[in-house]
Amino acid sequence: MMRRRPGLTLIEMIVVGAILALLATIVLSGTAQARRMARTGACQAALRGLGTALAAYATTHADAVVPSYNMSGTTVGAHNPLDGWAVILDRENFAGGAAGPTGNAFYCPDTLPRAGLAAAQTGADPENPRGFMDWPAVLTLSQAYARPLPERGMPRVLRVAYWINGENPIGRPLPIRQGAYYTGSVGYGSDPFGRTLRANRLGDITRPSATIALADGLYAGNQEGPRPGDRDLRIGYRHLRGAAATNVAFADGHVSMLRGDAFPRDLGGAVPNGQVREENLGGRPTCYADPEKWLSATP
Predict the structure, then answer these.
(1) Segment 162-196, tens digit of pLDDT
(2) In this structure, is residue 114 part of a structural domain?
(3) pLDDT of residue 33
(4) Is residue 22 part of a domain?
(5) Is the pTM of this model over 0.90?
(6) Is 132 helix (H, G, I), strand (E, B) or coil?
(7) Domain for residue 152, yes or no?
(8) Count of CB atoms within 10 A of residue 203's CB?
(9) What is the pLDDT, as a whole number, of residue 120?
(10) DSSP the chain
(11) Of 14-18, 72-76, 85-89, 117-121, which gets the smallest average pLDDT?
(12) What distance in Å separates the CA atoms of residue 125 and residue 36, rounded to the nearest whole number?
């Protein structure tokens, strides 16, 4: 006679359920990781394309680096709006932008769907730099809002989720450091010495393979506070490499990833000058176009 095999015991069912749950977690985790890697790769591809666009702009404009934006005077407002490097590249057909994330060369696919700027600053919220900013824009002491500039050939607003390494001394007449960074707010001035900020030259960048041009983020400047936890952070640490990391396009066009604890800082913040030197010299990624020049006299 055939003997009837008993069914699964409760313990066996619990064990089988735990195994199935573990397998499902592994599969879902692998899928999420694959999607995250795909978005990171898409962001890097976008930055490579923008690196090519920046080089093409300089070639067409007698070696001039695209302005972080154009302005006049030392302050901005409704009668002195900013255009922005992205809408400049879009207007001149070096790269194509859009009002949203789709079909937009200036948008990282890991960008949080929120505006990242209020009152011309990102504040203390660590999530805000992972958002976007719309350009062209009007900045005041109390608000920031987008505005088309048809009079400059910019009839639409573009959503931008990348930060540009630029001199950004807006608000009062500050001494100009011509050529300190990759780019700058062309037309700013005059400073206390009667100078106006001009376009930087690509040929004046001494270490293009190490000089940061673009990164995940928004707006421009604030290089003295570019790490996670800093107030008014402009860099967007949207990716992971064992810790929060950002994709970076360098002045020579290549793209790499920097962890948040390795992003170089500028003089003028709370970090000792000697540490700033260490972060920017010795072949490391740098925020300076000519780090030896700007840091040589730093004690």
Answers:
(1) 999 999 888 889 999 999 999 999 999 999 999 99
(2) yes
(3) 73
(4) no
(5) no
(6) strand
(7) yes
(8) 10
(9) 82
(10) -PPPPP---HHHHHHHHHHHHHHHHHHHHHHHHHHHHHHHHHHHHHHHHHHHHHHHHHHHTTTBPPPSEEEEES--BTTB-B--HHHHHHHTTSS---SSSTT-TT--TT--SSB--BTTB-TT-TTGGGSBEEESEEE-SS-EEE--BGGGTB-S-EEE-EEE-EE---SS-PPP-TTSSSEEEEEEB--TTS-B----BGGG-S-TTTBEEEEEBSSB--TTS-STT-TT--B---EESSSEEEEEEETTS-EEEEEGGG----TTSSS-HHHHHHHHSTT--BS-SSHHHHHTT--
(11) 14-18
(12) 23
Whole-number CA gyration radius for the chain: 23
Residue that is written with structure tokens 């407002």 in the block: 77
**Residue 21 included in any domain:** no
Tokens of 259: 């962890």
Confidence of residue 114 (pLDDT cuts 50, 70, 90): very high
Which residue, among 134, 39, 43, has the nearest Cα to 90 in the 3D structure?
A: 134
**How many separate domains does the chain show?**
1
